Protein 1
Amino acid sequence: MFGRGQPIFILSEGTERMKGRDARKNDISAAKAIADTVRSTLGPKGMDKMLVDNLGDVVITNDGVTILNEIDIEHPAAKMIIEVAETQEDECGDGTTSAVILAGELLSKAEGLIDRNIHPAIISNGYRLASLKAYEIIEELKIPIEMDDIVLTNIATAAMTGKTVELDKEHLAEIALEAVKKIVDDEKESYQVDIDNIKILKKTGASVDESQLIDGIVLEKERLHEKMPKRIENAKIALLNYEFDVKKTEIDASIEITSTDQLQKFIDQEEKSIMKMVKILEEVGADILICQKDVNDLAQHYLAKAGITALKDVSKSDMKKLGKATEGKVVNNLKELSYEDLGHADLIHERKISDKNMIFIEGARNGKAVSILIRGGTEHIVDEIERVLEDGLKVLAVAIEDLTILPGGGAVEIELANRLREEAGKIRGREQIAFEAFAESFEIVPRTLAQNSGLDGIDVLMNLNTAHQKEGLKDHGIDIDTGTTKDMVEMGIIEPSRIKIQAIKSSTEVTNMILRIDDVIAAKGSSKKNEG
Ligand code: ADP
Ligand code: MG
């Protein structure tokens, strides 16, 4: 049918295709480039990155996931590495840089093995076996903790280490811990922490140490009318996610205005409808209306007259928080509102914070709601504090839910590298070589920590190995000031074990995924699609 030697085109013109070794090499290089980008930010002495987008907006950060999210990356394999950082961030709030660096190292080692003619499937299998063993080792290494303030403060501080807000991290760690303790749910067998119950607000114009924790929910809103009560005790709250207004269409359809007399009638009718709506609130016993949408101007007047405070344009996420905290139901039809739907709070009051009125909802029925007001000199500072604080909160949540930790400063990585190397001997076939490579990959973390602290990577690894192998000091990590080793648990440089487990999980997964690709078929112009 087809002429001999004639190529058969199954892909449309312009499709770019890369196969086998070339495809893999290209993917690995891209992934390694990403890891190199964030390497210098690892650890307490890591550097910051200044990112400038095409509009000239600047972000200064040390946060791995923020950096990777801000830079415009096209390469599909590079994007897969970024997903590692995102997963790490979502699951644990910390360890993003470590996870990406580990993935980069696993791929780099794999590249070397491919050059030695070891098939990617063998490498992938060796890595998988090694990762399973790594989880087992972590189970042996992890240390149980109690709900102890000092330990938890150390964990929060460690998560905030090396960020631009270094000087304020103690104060911020304290706030984060207080916040998490207020919302922890201890009714089930293990503690549950839902950090969605913590609302973060940002205000420039004061120093970072004036950031504070507020018991309850704070809304950047003010009463719609000055005659509305400013302070409500034992408040019953109506939550509406629909406009508090007359449905215009209902009236428009029936009246055609031709005279002033009719106009008056129309206005009267609108007014009547509004009064009826206010009446509903009065009858169910609401003291305050919190509305996600607009509140009609005339309605504001009648609400004030009825002694009902009202707020409008409250965000959807705040409505959700309010519903949860005050145990009220967010309704979308006022006519369906009943007493049972109302939320409860001990006190709602309006207060000024740096020239701006805010509404404080305190002593909510469910009690598990707090707000953190972040202060800082500039937008850049409050934004970075928000990122750092969110990480701290998430890490605390993970620590409290699991109540197990691991020593930081490269201690776990060295222990993993050594123990896995020993285990490699038990592996048959060529997988053994990949297993060993997996073990060695962990050294990238202490080596990078050392280099970023201005120390010699090889010396520091030697010191660590002496401590771990010769002296059995499995909690010893790098003392970044001297290059010697110290007990990280004693120094309070600790992390929830979930951070390490997740980092191994996602970096192994993405490495194996990239290793399995042997054909990249890109549609014409596909690299341009995401632009703009
Ligand atoms: P990541 O995004 O991976 O969390 P970080 O920049 O926060 O990156 O660095 C975390 C690493 O730094 C961890 O391995 C942690 O144990 C280590 N580390 C943090 N503080 C210290 C310290 N004071 N001394 C030594 N290592 C530290
Ligand atoms: Mg960190």
Protein 2
Amino acid sequence: MPKIIIAIDGYSSCGKSTTAKAVAARMKYGYIDTGAMYRAVSLYFIQNHVSFSNSKEIAAALNDIHITFNFNPKTGRNETCLNGLNVEEEIRKMYISNYVSEVSTLVEVRRAMVAQQQKMGRRRGVVMDGRDIGTKVFPDAEVKVFMSADTGIRAARRQRELLEKGEMVPVEDIKANLEKRDLIDSTRAESPLSQAADAVPLDTTHMTIEEQVEWVVELADRRIAELYREGYFEGKR
Ligand code: DC
């Protein structure tokens, strides 16, 4: 059966990754967490003291950075590896969240990540979540969702996630970080966070993850049926 690309963009901590992962499992598609890629680059930059203002250093670092998603049978999840090392836990910590938006404004970083993401999705059959998937990485994605939610709710959800991992962060700090990241993400010069004209908005403030997953799967099913009727898949495998 021919496969499509499902692009899920939106603000931080709206449940994009959790939803995208579950949608991918339901549809037997691959899942690519593009935020994890920017987080892995941030970790490398911190560890190797890469200067934001030195383009030679940035280029050399990007040459040396290899990001893969490897299946961990213990957790049953694809986990982010940086140069062969599993960094899944490390990149979710607050110090990375405080650093990543700046790193993701760098043109060289964005170009390198977008090129890798386009390669990863070239056979379609993927759910990709991020900020610029429907606008920049796959403007031709067949399904585009744009997620938002109330900031207080997002901060509370994020605090719970961090607590489950043993990191206690005051909710005000998380809220400030989310607001700062939203602002940087939506005002940066290179592929800012914005809703694609053909994206369907989804406000998750009052939704459970299960409801979000159902909503996206139904949207994708309807779109696939429509594409069949239009003959879009003819000649495609
Ligand atoms: O989805 P996340 O919170 O893990 O993403 C981390 C950061 O990476 C986020 O603050 C913005 C950036 N990002 C981006 O600029 N473009 C993407 N496609 C994905 C994430």
